[in-house]
Amino acid sequence: MRSSILTVLVLSLLVAACSQQPVINEEMTHFEGAMPADFSGSWQRNYLRDDSVNAVLNDAYNRLIRRTQDPAFAGRPVQTGPSSKDVEALIALADLAELITRPDDLTISQNEYEVRVDRKDDYSMLCSFYDGVEKGTESPYGVETCGWNGKQLVSHLKLPDGLQITHRFDISTDFRQLRVQTTLSSSTSKVPFTIKRFYTKFRRPAPRFECIETLSMKRVCSTGELRM
Amino acid sequence: MRAVSALRTPLVTLVLALMVSIPAYSSTALNVSIVIFDPGVPEDRSSHRDLQIFPRIREIEARILPFVLRDTLAETGEWGAVRVIPEPDVSAELLVTGEIGRSDGEMLELKIRAVDASGVVWLDKAFAGAVNDGQYDAIAADLRLAAAQLDDKKLDSIREYSMLRYANRLAPTVFGDYLETQADGTVKVIRLPAKSDPNLDRTRRMRETEYVITDTVDAKFQELHADIASIYELWRKYRRKNLEYQASNAEHAQVTKSAAPKGSFEDLKNQYDNYKWDRVTAQEQDRLAVAFSNEAGPKIEAIETRIAELTAWVDQRYALWHRLMAELFDVETTLQEAEAIEKELIDRIETLPRGEIE
Q1: Which of residues 209-228 of A touch B (CB under 8 A)?
Q2: Assessment of whether the complete model's pTM goes beyond 0.90
Q3: Is residue B354 part of a domain?
Q4: How far apart are CA B352 and CA B57, in angstroms?
Q5: Is the CB of A163 less than 8 angstroms away from the CB of B283?
Q6: Which CATH number among 3.30.200.20, 2.40.50.100, 1.10.10.10, 2.40.128.20 corresponds to the domain A32-64+83-222?
Q7: What is the ipTM score, two decimals?
Q8: Where are the domains of chain A?
Protein backbone atom coordinates (compact mmCIF):
# COMPACT_ATOMS: atom_id res chain seq x y z
CA MET A 1 0.00 0.00 0.00
CA ARG A 2 2.75 2.37 1.05
CA SER A 3 4.82 1.54 -2.07
CA SER A 4 1.88 2.25 -4.41
CA ILE A 5 1.35 5.66 -2.77
CA LEU A 6 5.08 6.33 -3.21
CA THR A 7 4.92 5.30 -6.87
CA VAL A 8 1.94 7.65 -7.43
CA LEU A 9 3.81 10.45 -5.68
CA VAL A 10 7.00 9.95 -7.71
CA LEU A 11 5.01 9.72 -10.96
CA SER A 12 3.08 12.87 -10.08
CA LEU A 13 6.33 14.74 -9.38
CA LEU A 14 7.82 13.51 -12.65
CA VAL A 15 4.74 14.60 -14.57
CA ALA A 16 4.78 17.98 -12.85
CA ALA A 17 8.48 18.41 -13.68
CA CYS A 18 7.88 17.45 -17.30
CA SER A 19 4.91 19.79 -17.65
CA GLN A 20 7.09 22.72 -16.50
CA GLN A 21 9.71 22.14 -19.20
CA PRO A 22 9.80 25.32 -21.27
CA VAL A 23 8.79 24.94 -24.92
CA ILE A 24 11.79 27.04 -25.87
CA ASN A 25 14.82 26.51 -23.71
CA GLU A 26 17.91 28.71 -23.39
CA GLU A 27 19.87 26.62 -25.88
CA MET A 28 17.25 27.14 -28.59
CA THR A 29 17.33 30.94 -28.42
CA HIS A 30 20.69 31.48 -30.03
CA PHE A 31 22.68 30.21 -32.96
CA GLU A 32 25.96 30.99 -34.66
CA GLY A 33 26.37 32.06 -38.27
CA ALA A 34 23.44 31.91 -40.66
CA MET A 35 19.95 30.88 -39.60
CA PRO A 36 19.70 27.08 -39.42
CA ALA A 37 17.01 26.87 -42.14
CA ASP A 38 15.51 29.06 -44.83
CA PHE A 39 11.71 29.08 -45.01
CA SER A 40 11.36 32.07 -47.31
CA GLY A 41 8.87 31.90 -50.15
CA SER A 42 5.18 31.59 -50.90
CA TRP A 43 3.46 28.51 -49.51
CA GLN A 44 0.13 27.07 -50.54
CA ARG A 45 -1.90 24.79 -48.31
CA ASN A 46 -1.81 21.11 -49.22
CA TYR A 47 -5.19 19.90 -47.95
CA LEU A 48 -4.48 16.30 -48.94
CA ARG A 49 -1.77 15.96 -46.35
CA ASP A 50 -3.41 18.06 -43.63
CA ASP A 51 -4.54 16.51 -40.38
CA SER A 52 -8.28 16.12 -40.04
CA VAL A 53 -9.51 18.19 -37.09
CA ASN A 54 -12.02 15.48 -36.13
CA ALA A 55 -9.39 12.72 -36.16
CA VAL A 56 -7.03 14.80 -34.05
CA LEU A 57 -9.87 15.67 -31.70
CA ASN A 58 -10.70 11.96 -31.31
CA ASP A 59 -7.10 11.20 -30.46
CA ALA A 60 -7.01 14.03 -27.98
CA TYR A 61 -10.28 12.86 -26.44
CA ASN A 62 -8.86 9.37 -26.00
CA ARG A 63 -5.81 10.82 -24.36
CA LEU A 64 -8.10 12.82 -22.09
CA ILE A 65 -9.95 9.62 -21.10
CA ARG A 66 -6.69 7.80 -20.37
CA ARG A 67 -5.46 10.74 -18.41
CA THR A 68 -8.57 11.07 -16.26
CA GLN A 69 -8.33 7.34 -15.55
CA ASP A 70 -4.64 7.45 -14.79
CA PRO A 71 -4.08 7.75 -11.06
CA ALA A 72 -0.87 9.67 -11.66
CA PHE A 73 -2.92 12.47 -13.17
CA ALA A 74 -6.40 12.07 -11.77
CA GLY A 75 -5.52 11.59 -8.14
CA ARG A 76 -7.80 9.49 -5.95
CA PRO A 77 -10.48 8.38 -6.37
CA VAL A 78 -9.85 7.65 -10.05
CA GLN A 79 -12.49 9.22 -12.30
CA THR A 80 -14.46 7.04 -14.68
CA GLY A 81 -14.00 9.50 -17.52
CA PRO A 82 -13.59 13.13 -18.37
CA SER A 83 -16.11 15.63 -17.10
CA SER A 84 -18.19 17.67 -19.53
CA LYS A 85 -16.11 20.68 -18.52
CA ASP A 86 -12.92 18.82 -19.55
CA VAL A 87 -14.44 17.95 -22.92
CA GLU A 88 -15.69 21.50 -23.49
CA ALA A 89 -12.23 22.88 -22.73
CA LEU A 90 -10.68 20.46 -25.24
CA ILE A 91 -13.24 21.30 -27.93
CA ALA A 92 -12.61 25.02 -27.35
CA LEU A 93 -8.91 24.42 -28.01
CA ALA A 94 -9.70 22.45 -31.17
CA ASP A 95 -12.01 25.20 -32.45
CA LEU A 96 -9.38 27.86 -31.87
CA ALA A 97 -6.69 25.68 -33.47
CA GLU A 98 -8.87 25.30 -36.56
CA LEU A 99 -9.40 29.07 -36.68
CA ILE A 100 -5.73 29.94 -36.26
CA THR A 101 -4.51 27.41 -38.82
CA ARG A 102 -7.13 28.37 -41.42
CA PRO A 103 -5.06 30.49 -43.85
CA ASP A 104 -4.76 28.97 -47.33
CA ASP A 105 -1.35 30.38 -47.94
CA LEU A 106 1.61 31.79 -46.10
CA THR A 107 4.25 34.21 -47.25
CA ILE A 108 7.50 33.83 -45.41
CA SER A 109 10.24 36.39 -45.73
CA GLN A 110 13.54 35.88 -44.07
CA ASN A 111 16.73 37.86 -43.73
CA GLU A 112 19.80 37.53 -41.54
CA TYR A 113 17.96 38.55 -38.40
CA GLU A 114 14.26 38.01 -38.93
CA VAL A 115 11.73 35.42 -40.06
CA ARG A 116 8.35 36.92 -40.86
CA VAL A 117 5.30 34.79 -41.59
CA ASP A 118 2.48 36.74 -43.21
CA ARG A 119 -0.91 35.12 -42.77
CA LYS A 120 -4.24 36.28 -44.13
CA ASP A 121 -6.63 37.72 -41.52
CA ASP A 122 -4.05 37.42 -38.78
CA TYR A 123 -1.00 39.28 -37.52
CA SER A 124 2.35 38.48 -39.05
CA MET A 125 4.29 36.09 -36.92
CA LEU A 126 7.75 37.51 -36.31
CA CYS A 127 10.88 35.78 -35.06
CA SER A 128 13.82 38.14 -34.55
CA PHE A 129 17.38 37.16 -33.82
CA TYR A 130 19.92 39.93 -33.35
CA ASP A 131 23.50 38.68 -33.65
CA GLY A 132 22.08 35.20 -33.41
CA VAL A 133 20.26 35.89 -30.15
CA GLU A 134 16.48 35.69 -29.98
CA LYS A 135 14.55 38.87 -29.27
CA GLY A 136 10.98 38.18 -28.25
CA THR A 137 7.90 40.34 -28.32
CA GLU A 138 6.35 41.29 -25.02
CA SER A 139 3.20 43.26 -24.33
CA PRO A 140 0.42 43.24 -21.72
CA TYR A 141 -1.43 40.86 -24.07
CA GLY A 142 1.20 38.17 -24.35
CA VAL A 143 4.78 37.09 -24.71
CA GLU A 144 6.02 35.63 -27.97
CA THR A 145 9.38 33.90 -28.16
CA CYS A 146 11.13 31.92 -30.85
CA GLY A 147 13.90 29.41 -31.02
CA TRP A 148 15.60 26.82 -33.18
CA ASN A 149 15.38 23.15 -32.42
CA GLY A 150 17.97 21.98 -34.93
CA LYS A 151 16.51 23.06 -38.26
CA GLN A 152 13.03 23.42 -36.80
CA LEU A 153 11.80 26.96 -36.09
CA VAL A 154 9.67 27.11 -32.98
CA SER A 155 7.40 30.03 -32.11
CA HIS A 156 5.77 30.09 -28.72
CA LEU A 157 3.05 32.47 -27.62
CA LYS A 158 2.02 32.70 -23.99
CA LEU A 159 -1.11 34.67 -23.21
CA PRO A 160 -1.84 36.11 -19.77
CA ASP A 161 -4.87 33.95 -18.99
CA GLY A 162 -3.10 30.66 -19.60
CA LEU A 163 -3.56 30.03 -23.32
CA GLN A 164 -0.35 28.90 -25.04
CA ILE A 165 0.18 28.45 -28.76
CA THR A 166 3.23 26.82 -30.29
CA HIS A 167 4.01 26.65 -34.01
CA ARG A 168 6.80 24.35 -35.21
CA PHE A 169 8.04 24.92 -38.75
CA ASP A 170 9.87 22.16 -40.64
CA ILE A 171 11.00 22.23 -44.25
CA SER A 172 11.58 19.18 -46.43
CA THR A 173 15.07 18.42 -47.71
CA ASP A 174 14.09 19.51 -51.25
CA PHE A 175 12.72 22.79 -49.79
CA ARG A 176 9.39 22.25 -51.55
CA GLN A 177 7.25 21.14 -48.60
CA LEU A 178 6.55 22.91 -45.33
CA ARG A 179 5.01 21.39 -42.25
CA VAL A 180 3.55 23.58 -39.53
CA GLN A 181 2.64 21.79 -36.34
CA THR A 182 0.47 23.91 -34.07
CA THR A 183 -0.10 23.03 -30.43
CA LEU A 184 -2.60 24.77 -28.19
CA SER A 185 -2.81 24.30 -24.47
CA SER A 186 -4.65 26.12 -21.76
CA SER A 187 -4.91 26.15 -18.02
CA THR A 188 -8.46 24.76 -18.31
CA SER A 189 -7.80 21.84 -20.66
CA LYS A 190 -6.19 18.70 -19.25
CA VAL A 191 -4.63 17.78 -22.61
CA PRO A 192 -3.11 19.94 -25.33
CA PHE A 193 -4.37 19.93 -28.90
CA THR A 194 -1.87 19.52 -31.74
CA ILE A 195 -2.67 19.78 -35.43
CA LYS A 196 -0.40 19.60 -38.49
CA ARG A 197 -0.81 21.67 -41.63
CA PHE A 198 1.18 21.11 -44.82
CA TYR A 199 2.14 23.62 -47.47
CA THR A 200 3.72 23.39 -50.91
CA LYS A 201 5.99 26.06 -52.27
CA PHE A 202 4.66 28.03 -55.21
CA ARG A 203 5.82 30.92 -57.33
CA ARG A 204 3.56 33.95 -57.10
CA PRO A 205 2.89 35.44 -60.54
CA ALA A 206 4.89 38.62 -61.10
CA PRO A 207 2.69 41.65 -60.41
CA ARG A 208 1.57 43.65 -63.45
CA PHE A 209 2.15 46.86 -61.55
CA GLU A 210 4.95 47.97 -59.35
CA CYS A 211 3.44 49.52 -56.24
CA ILE A 212 4.75 51.27 -53.18
CA GLU A 213 3.01 52.56 -50.09
CA THR A 214 3.13 56.27 -49.39
CA LEU A 215 1.60 58.34 -46.62
CA SER A 216 0.02 61.12 -48.60
CA MET A 217 -1.07 59.17 -51.70
CA LYS A 218 -1.62 55.75 -50.10
CA ARG A 219 -0.70 53.03 -52.60
CA VAL A 220 1.03 54.29 -55.72
CA CYS A 221 1.36 51.92 -58.67
CA SER A 222 3.05 52.08 -62.02
CA THR A 223 3.55 49.77 -64.97
CA GLY A 224 7.21 50.77 -65.20
CA GLU A 225 9.91 51.42 -62.68
CA LEU A 226 8.46 53.42 -59.85
CA ARG A 227 10.31 56.49 -58.64
CA MET A 228 8.92 59.01 -56.19
CA MET B 1 59.39 87.24 -55.98
CA ARG B 2 58.96 83.98 -57.90
CA ALA B 3 56.79 82.68 -55.08
CA VAL B 4 54.56 85.73 -55.27
CA SER B 5 54.00 85.38 -59.01
CA ALA B 6 53.21 81.68 -58.61
CA LEU B 7 50.46 82.69 -56.24
CA ARG B 8 48.88 85.15 -58.64
CA THR B 9 46.48 82.79 -60.46
CA PRO B 10 44.99 81.14 -57.36
CA LEU B 11 44.84 84.57 -55.75
CA VAL B 12 42.73 85.88 -58.63
CA THR B 13 40.37 82.94 -58.08
CA LEU B 14 40.31 83.72 -54.41
CA VAL B 15 39.62 87.41 -54.93
CA LEU B 16 36.81 86.56 -57.35
CA ALA B 17 35.37 84.18 -54.78
CA LEU B 18 35.48 86.94 -52.21
CA MET B 19 33.48 89.26 -54.43
CA VAL B 20 30.28 87.23 -53.96
CA SER B 21 27.62 89.33 -52.26
CA ILE B 22 27.22 88.69 -48.54
CA PRO B 23 23.74 88.75 -46.93
CA ALA B 24 23.32 91.33 -44.22
CA TYR B 25 22.59 90.20 -40.67
CA SER B 26 22.39 92.08 -37.43
CA SER B 27 25.93 92.89 -36.40
CA THR B 28 25.12 93.35 -32.73
CA ALA B 29 23.64 89.92 -32.00
CA LEU B 30 25.51 86.62 -32.09
CA ASN B 31 25.14 84.28 -35.04
CA VAL B 32 23.72 80.88 -34.16
CA SER B 33 24.63 77.64 -35.90
CA ILE B 34 22.34 74.67 -35.26
CA VAL B 35 23.81 71.33 -36.21
CA ILE B 36 21.40 68.72 -37.56
CA PHE B 37 20.34 66.72 -34.54
CA ASP B 38 21.64 63.38 -33.37
CA PRO B 39 18.79 60.96 -34.19
CA GLY B 40 19.23 59.31 -30.78
CA VAL B 41 18.96 55.79 -32.18
CA PRO B 42 20.51 53.21 -29.82
CA GLU B 43 23.16 51.02 -31.44
CA ASP B 44 21.44 47.92 -30.09
CA ARG B 45 19.05 47.18 -32.95
CA SER B 46 17.13 44.72 -30.84
CA SER B 47 15.89 47.53 -28.60
CA HIS B 48 14.34 49.61 -31.39
CA ARG B 49 11.01 47.81 -31.42
CA ASP B 50 10.57 48.02 -27.65
CA LEU B 51 11.46 51.71 -27.67
CA GLN B 52 9.20 52.34 -30.68
CA ILE B 53 12.10 53.79 -32.64
CA PHE B 54 12.11 53.77 -36.43
CA PRO B 55 15.75 54.57 -37.33
CA ARG B 56 15.08 55.89 -40.84
CA ILE B 57 12.39 58.20 -39.55
CA ARG B 58 14.58 59.41 -36.71
CA GLU B 59 17.21 60.32 -39.31
CA ILE B 60 14.60 62.35 -41.17
CA GLU B 61 13.46 64.01 -37.95
CA ALA B 62 17.08 64.85 -37.12
CA ARG B 63 17.17 66.88 -40.31
CA ILE B 64 13.86 68.65 -40.06
CA LEU B 65 13.38 69.35 -36.34
CA PRO B 66 16.37 71.75 -36.15
CA PHE B 67 14.41 73.90 -38.58
CA VAL B 68 11.61 74.42 -36.14
CA LEU B 69 14.20 75.63 -33.64
CA ARG B 70 15.89 77.75 -36.30
CA ASP B 71 12.58 79.44 -37.22
CA THR B 72 11.71 79.94 -33.55
CA LEU B 73 15.05 81.64 -32.86
CA ALA B 74 14.96 83.69 -36.07
CA GLU B 75 11.44 84.92 -35.31
CA THR B 76 12.58 86.38 -31.99
CA GLY B 77 14.81 88.83 -33.88
CA GLU B 78 17.28 88.57 -31.02
CA TRP B 79 19.97 86.76 -32.95
CA GLY B 80 22.16 87.40 -35.94
CA ALA B 81 22.04 84.81 -38.67
CA VAL B 82 20.49 81.53 -37.49
CA ARG B 83 21.66 78.67 -39.69
CA VAL B 84 21.26 74.91 -39.83
CA ILE B 85 24.59 73.26 -40.62
CA PRO B 86 25.44 69.63 -41.41
CA GLU B 87 28.50 69.27 -39.13
CA PRO B 88 29.52 70.88 -35.81
CA ASP B 89 31.67 73.98 -36.22
CA VAL B 90 33.62 74.97 -33.11
CA SER B 91 34.22 78.41 -34.55
CA ALA B 92 30.49 79.20 -34.58
CA GLU B 93 29.68 82.17 -32.37
CA LEU B 94 26.99 80.09 -30.70
CA LEU B 95 26.82 76.40 -31.58
CA VAL B 96 23.62 74.50 -30.78
CA THR B 97 23.61 70.72 -30.88
CA GLY B 98 20.69 68.47 -30.08
CA GLU B 99 19.67 64.86 -29.68
CA ILE B 100 16.21 63.42 -30.08
CA GLY B 101 15.42 61.63 -26.84
CA ARG B 102 11.89 60.67 -27.74
CA SER B 103 9.55 61.35 -30.64
CA ASP B 104 6.45 59.24 -31.04
CA GLY B 105 3.94 61.66 -32.49
CA GLU B 106 2.54 62.38 -29.06
CA MET B 107 5.63 63.16 -26.96
CA LEU B 108 8.81 64.92 -27.96
CA GLU B 109 12.03 65.12 -25.99
CA LEU B 110 15.02 67.10 -27.21
CA LYS B 111 18.36 67.20 -25.43
CA ILE B 112 19.89 70.55 -26.29
CA ARG B 113 23.39 71.88 -25.71
CA ALA B 114 24.58 75.36 -26.63
CA VAL B 115 28.24 76.36 -26.46
CA ASP B 116 29.76 79.69 -27.48
CA ALA B 117 33.03 80.12 -29.35
CA SER B 118 34.97 80.56 -26.12
CA GLY B 119 33.83 77.07 -25.06
CA VAL B 120 31.40 78.29 -22.39
CA VAL B 121 28.31 76.09 -22.13
CA TRP B 122 25.14 78.18 -22.21
CA LEU B 123 22.66 75.40 -22.07
CA ASP B 124 22.70 71.65 -21.54
CA LYS B 125 19.32 70.21 -20.75
CA ALA B 126 16.41 68.13 -21.96
CA PHE B 127 13.16 69.70 -23.10
CA ALA B 128 10.30 67.21 -22.99
CA GLY B 129 6.57 67.32 -23.31
CA ALA B 130 3.71 66.74 -25.67
CA VAL B 131 4.36 67.60 -29.32
CA ASN B 132 3.77 71.33 -29.92
CA ASP B 133 4.02 71.85 -26.18
CA GLY B 134 6.39 74.77 -26.57
CA GLN B 135 9.75 72.98 -26.31
CA TYR B 136 11.25 75.25 -28.96
CA ASP B 137 9.97 78.39 -27.22
CA ALA B 138 11.46 77.09 -23.97
CA ILE B 139 14.85 76.57 -25.66
CA ALA B 140 14.66 80.08 -27.15
CA ALA B 141 13.76 81.51 -23.74
CA ASP B 142 16.70 79.75 -22.05
CA LEU B 143 19.11 80.99 -24.72
CA ARG B 144 17.72 84.51 -24.41
CA LEU B 145 18.25 84.33 -20.65
CA ALA B 146 21.85 83.18 -21.10
CA ALA B 147 22.52 85.94 -23.64
CA ALA B 148 21.02 88.56 -21.32
CA GLN B 149 23.75 87.83 -18.74
CA LEU B 150 26.40 89.03 -21.17
CA ASP B 151 27.36 92.63 -21.83
CA ASP B 152 28.49 93.99 -25.19
CA LYS B 153 32.15 93.53 -24.25
CA LYS B 154 31.63 89.82 -23.60
CA LEU B 155 29.65 89.44 -26.83
CA ASP B 156 32.48 91.15 -28.74
CA SER B 157 34.94 88.82 -27.11
CA ILE B 158 32.89 85.78 -28.23
CA ARG B 159 33.04 87.12 -31.78
CA GLU B 160 36.82 87.47 -31.46
CA TYR B 161 37.11 83.91 -30.21
CA SER B 162 34.95 82.81 -33.08
CA MET B 163 37.15 84.58 -35.63
CA LEU B 164 40.36 83.26 -34.08
CA ARG B 165 39.05 79.70 -33.96
CA TYR B 166 38.02 79.99 -37.57
CA ALA B 167 41.42 81.45 -38.47
CA ASN B 168 43.14 78.69 -36.51
CA ARG B 169 41.18 76.05 -38.43
CA LEU B 170 41.86 77.74 -41.76
CA ALA B 171 45.55 78.47 -41.26
CA PRO B 172 46.96 76.67 -38.23
CA THR B 173 50.52 77.57 -39.25
CA VAL B 174 49.62 81.26 -39.01
CA PHE B 175 47.15 81.32 -36.13
CA GLY B 176 48.09 78.15 -34.29
CA ASP B 177 49.58 79.81 -31.22
CA TYR B 178 46.90 82.41 -30.55
CA LEU B 179 44.56 80.11 -28.61
CA GLU B 180 44.90 77.41 -26.00
CA THR B 181 42.20 74.92 -25.04
CA GLN B 182 41.83 74.52 -21.27
CA ALA B 183 41.13 71.28 -19.41
CA ASP B 184 37.46 72.29 -18.89
CA GLY B 185 36.91 72.68 -22.63
CA THR B 186 36.99 76.48 -22.65
CA VAL B 187 39.43 78.34 -24.83
CA LYS B 188 41.94 80.94 -23.70
CA VAL B 189 43.43 83.65 -25.88
CA ILE B 190 47.22 83.59 -25.56
CA ARG B 191 47.81 86.58 -27.78
CA LEU B 192 45.89 88.63 -30.28
CA PRO B 193 46.85 89.43 -33.84
CA ALA B 194 47.33 93.06 -34.73
CA LYS B 195 44.12 94.75 -35.89
CA SER B 196 45.92 95.56 -39.16
CA ASP B 197 47.20 91.98 -39.63
CA PRO B 198 46.62 91.30 -43.34
CA ASN B 199 46.16 87.57 -42.62
CA LEU B 200 43.32 88.30 -40.25
CA ASP B 201 41.71 90.55 -42.80
CA ARG B 202 42.00 87.82 -45.45
CA THR B 203 40.55 85.27 -43.03
CA ARG B 204 37.60 87.53 -42.31
CA ARG B 205 36.86 87.86 -46.01
CA MET B 206 37.18 84.11 -46.55
CA ARG B 207 34.78 83.49 -43.73
CA GLU B 208 32.25 85.80 -45.28
CA THR B 209 32.56 83.82 -48.50
CA GLU B 210 32.08 80.62 -46.58
CA TYR B 211 28.92 82.06 -45.06
CA VAL B 212 27.51 82.32 -48.58
CA ILE B 213 27.97 78.57 -48.95
CA THR B 214 26.65 77.91 -45.44
CA ASP B 215 23.57 79.96 -46.29
CA THR B 216 23.10 77.91 -49.44
CA VAL B 217 23.34 74.69 -47.39
CA ASP B 218 20.91 76.20 -44.91
CA ALA B 219 18.55 77.08 -47.77
CA LYS B 220 18.77 73.48 -48.98
CA PHE B 221 17.82 72.23 -45.51
CA GLN B 222 14.98 74.74 -45.53
CA GLU B 223 13.85 73.36 -48.89
CA LEU B 224 13.92 69.86 -47.43
CA HIS B 225 11.90 71.02 -44.45
CA ALA B 226 9.28 72.63 -46.70
CA ASP B 227 9.18 69.53 -48.92
CA ILE B 228 8.58 66.97 -46.24
CA ALA B 229 6.92 68.96 -43.47
CA SER B 230 3.44 68.00 -44.67
CA ILE B 231 4.36 64.29 -44.97
CA TYR B 232 5.98 64.44 -41.54
CA GLU B 233 2.84 66.00 -40.09
CA LEU B 234 0.85 63.16 -41.67
CA TRP B 235 3.20 60.63 -40.08
CA ARG B 236 2.71 62.25 -36.69
CA LYS B 237 -1.04 62.20 -37.22
CA TYR B 238 -0.97 58.48 -38.04
CA ARG B 239 1.24 57.80 -35.04
CA ARG B 240 -1.19 59.59 -32.78
CA LYS B 241 -3.98 57.55 -34.37
CA ASN B 242 -1.97 54.42 -33.69
CA LEU B 243 -1.60 55.37 -30.05
CA GLU B 244 -5.36 55.85 -29.93
CA TYR B 245 -5.81 52.35 -31.39
CA GLN B 246 -3.52 50.95 -28.73
CA ALA B 247 -5.59 52.63 -26.03
CA SER B 248 -8.76 51.32 -27.64
CA ASN B 249 -7.26 47.80 -27.79
CA ALA B 250 -6.53 48.03 -24.06
CA GLU B 251 -10.07 49.17 -23.34
CA HIS B 252 -11.53 46.37 -25.48
CA ALA B 253 -9.37 43.80 -23.69
CA GLN B 254 -10.60 45.06 -20.35
CA VAL B 255 -14.27 45.04 -21.36
CA THR B 256 -14.26 41.56 -22.90
CA LYS B 257 -12.14 39.96 -20.17
CA SER B 258 -14.89 38.95 -17.77
CA ALA B 259 -17.62 38.38 -20.37
CA ALA B 260 -16.95 34.76 -21.37
CA PRO B 261 -16.65 31.68 -19.10
CA LYS B 262 -13.02 30.72 -18.48
CA GLY B 263 -11.76 28.07 -20.89
CA SER B 264 -14.64 28.53 -23.34
CA PHE B 265 -13.98 29.14 -27.03
CA GLU B 266 -15.03 32.81 -26.60
CA ASP B 267 -12.61 33.21 -23.72
CA LEU B 268 -9.71 31.66 -25.65
CA LYS B 269 -10.56 33.61 -28.80
CA ASN B 270 -10.69 36.83 -26.77
CA GLN B 271 -7.24 36.14 -25.37
CA TYR B 272 -5.92 35.45 -28.84
CA ASP B 273 -7.70 38.41 -30.44
CA ASN B 274 -6.38 40.83 -27.83
CA TYR B 275 -2.85 39.79 -28.68
CA LYS B 276 -3.61 39.69 -32.40
CA TRP B 277 -5.00 43.27 -32.50
CA ASP B 278 -2.09 44.55 -30.48
CA ARG B 279 0.31 43.03 -33.01
CA VAL B 280 -1.76 44.20 -35.99
CA THR B 281 -1.66 47.76 -34.59
CA ALA B 282 2.10 47.59 -34.12
CA GLN B 283 2.59 46.11 -37.59
CA GLU B 284 0.37 48.78 -39.14
CA GLN B 285 2.69 51.34 -37.59
CA ASP B 286 5.68 49.57 -39.15
CA ARG B 287 3.89 49.71 -42.51
CA LEU B 288 3.27 53.45 -42.12
CA ALA B 289 6.92 53.99 -41.23
CA VAL B 290 7.91 52.28 -44.47
CA ALA B 291 5.36 54.40 -46.37
CA PHE B 292 6.82 57.58 -44.86
CA SER B 293 10.32 56.49 -45.71
CA ASN B 294 9.24 55.59 -49.29
CA GLU B 295 7.85 59.06 -49.78
CA ALA B 296 10.36 61.21 -47.94
CA GLY B 297 13.48 59.12 -48.70
CA PRO B 298 14.05 60.19 -52.33
CA LYS B 299 13.58 63.88 -51.47
CA ILE B 300 16.11 63.58 -48.66
CA GLU B 301 18.60 61.73 -50.82
CA ALA B 302 18.38 64.40 -53.56
CA ILE B 303 18.95 67.23 -51.10
CA GLU B 304 21.70 65.39 -49.28
CA THR B 305 23.51 64.87 -52.58
CA ARG B 306 23.35 68.63 -53.22
CA ILE B 307 24.53 69.39 -49.68
CA ALA B 308 27.39 66.91 -50.09
CA GLU B 309 28.42 68.71 -53.30
CA LEU B 310 28.37 72.06 -51.51
CA THR B 311 30.34 70.82 -48.52
CA ALA B 312 32.82 69.10 -50.84
CA TRP B 313 33.25 72.46 -52.57
CA VAL B 314 33.87 74.12 -49.20
CA ASP B 315 36.36 71.41 -48.26
CA GLN B 316 38.24 71.92 -51.52
CA ARG B 317 38.27 75.69 -50.90
CA TYR B 318 39.54 75.04 -47.40
CA ALA B 319 42.46 73.06 -48.76
CA LEU B 320 43.21 75.82 -51.24
CA TRP B 321 42.80 78.63 -48.70
CA HIS B 322 44.89 76.72 -46.21
CA ARG B 323 47.72 76.38 -48.73
CA LEU B 324 47.46 79.98 -49.91
CA MET B 325 47.44 81.34 -46.37
CA ALA B 326 50.51 79.29 -45.47
CA GLU B 327 52.31 80.42 -48.64
CA LEU B 328 51.35 84.07 -48.12
CA PHE B 329 52.58 83.81 -44.54
CA ASP B 330 55.91 82.40 -45.78
CA VAL B 331 56.24 85.11 -48.39
CA GLU B 332 55.43 87.85 -45.90
CA THR B 333 57.76 86.41 -43.28
CA THR B 334 60.56 86.18 -45.85
CA LEU B 335 59.87 89.74 -46.97
CA GLN B 336 59.87 90.92 -43.36
CA GLU B 337 63.15 89.11 -42.77
CA ALA B 338 64.61 90.59 -45.95
CA GLU B 339 63.44 94.03 -44.87
CA ALA B 340 65.02 93.50 -41.45
CA ILE B 341 68.33 92.42 -43.01
CA GLU B 342 68.18 95.33 -45.42
CA LYS B 343 67.48 97.74 -42.53
CA GLU B 344 70.33 96.25 -40.50
CA LEU B 345 72.71 96.59 -43.46
CA ILE B 346 71.65 100.20 -44.01
CA ASP B 347 72.14 100.91 -40.32
CA ARG B 348 75.54 99.30 -40.41
CA ILE B 349 76.47 101.14 -43.60
CA GLU B 350 75.33 104.41 -42.10
CA THR B 351 77.48 103.88 -39.04
CA LEU B 352 80.60 103.08 -41.09
CA PRO B 353 83.26 105.82 -41.60
CA ARG B 354 82.82 107.45 -45.03
CA GLY B 355 86.25 106.25 -46.25
CA GLU B 356 85.35 102.55 -45.78
CA ILE B 357 82.27 102.89 -47.98
CA GLU B 358 84.17 104.32 -50.84
Answers
A1: 212-217, 227-228
A2: no
A3: no
A4: 82
A5: no
A6: 2.40.128.20
A7: 0.86
A8: 32-64+83-222
